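Section: Multi-chain targets

For targets with more than one molecule, the full set of components is provided together so that the structure can be written out for the assembly as a whole rather than chain by chain. Components appear in the order listed by the source. The example entry contains two components.
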Amino acid sequence: MKLDVLYFAWVRERIGLPKEKVETSAATVAELVEELKAREERYEAAFADLSALRVAIDQELTEFDAALDGAREVAFFPPMTGG
Amino acid sequence: MKILVQEEAFDFGAEAQAFASGHTDMGAIVTFTGVVRDLPGDPLDRMEIEHYPGMTEKALTKIAEEAQSRWNLGDVLVIHRHGTLRPGDMIMMVATAAPHRVDAFAAAEFLMDYLKSRAPFWKQEFTADGGAWVAAKDEDEDALNRW
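Its structure, encoded as tokens over all components, is:
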């Protein structure tokens, strides 16, 4: 499965890019995170503390145990600070 | 319902006037405006607001729809800016129209609480020391529990 993976705020800064295509067979967001962490140190640094992160699948907030079945876009970011 | 996500400044007076006009059955209009606040003792040069184009509009629409389902509202307006803002600049506004003020006030507070922690915006403050991401506050998350 080919996913668009997006990063925002300090997650984007740590990983060093806003968006990339990822070929993965991960079944869940958590599995995708493990695959990314295994790639390089900068991913390990960005995903070190999942409690400090939020995730969206296809632009809907979800949880790290959510299934990626049918997903096109996954985004990782810190807790939001709007308003 | 009107949801605007934009980089450019908005005219608060004109938006509020337009929103409040043209109803004969709305007895209450409530508006809230968020303004970039300077930092005491550590002057703020600017704030940069990043967002998630596409998701931002969807999240704001969902929050506004939720407000409409919970209270008796005639209309909802949300404007939120992104990009570079300076102290004193207006960041965002919400407006609610309802037959009665209790609904208009409650819905405006609900909109504010939710768009602080459920709309994908991230603020970075720049001072003489450089940039720092604004951390989400526990009390902002706790504020959602009251609804």
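The longest strand of chain B covers residues 90-98.
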